Amino acid sequence: MKKHIRIFLAGMMIVAPIAVTAYAVVWAGAGLDNLARSGIQAVAPAAKAWLFPGVGAILLIVAVYLVGLLTRVWGFRWIMRLVEGVFARLPGIKALYESVRDILKLFGGDSKHMGQVVRYRLPGTDAKVLGIRTSTAPRGAADPGRVAVYLPMSYMVGGMTVYVPADAVEPVEMSVEEALKIAATAEVGQHRDDPPGAKAP
Fold it and tell me: Beta-strand (E) ranges in the chain?
């Protein structure tokens, strides 16, 4: 019986990640498709005849790509700076806009501007926590000489920002993406005795 359970769990380890990922992609795609088609129908009701399922997502992807091309034009960048300036003056909206913008930087190749990966030693212990130094002169720190360090938590979206002495952290030669991946998975799947980067047999 135990043998069959192990075989079932081995199959589950293969099927579950694929199924969850596929479901998430389909769910997100369907949501974007419905959103885009609803927007098009609101602007042009006559377009309903040719808005077949999937065309909304395709048009949305094309539109986003075109916006990306426009970012190469100086005039468009100037307009976007004006829009950002308006958002920066609106309470609540500013926090939401800047949070989404900074998160998307991680997926846009701009993560080097998000901060420096560091190891932070917990006071009174020998334990060290992997974090991201986001500012060397944080506005929220009451004491001078402190830096802001974001400590991501494993298996969840979130974490905490702490203000610690600058000499309490040591830089790590690692990308922000890699640090967030390690924090998210808690390095589950890598054997204790394996060297960094080694694959489990």
Answer: 116-121, 128-135, 146-152, 159-165, 169-171
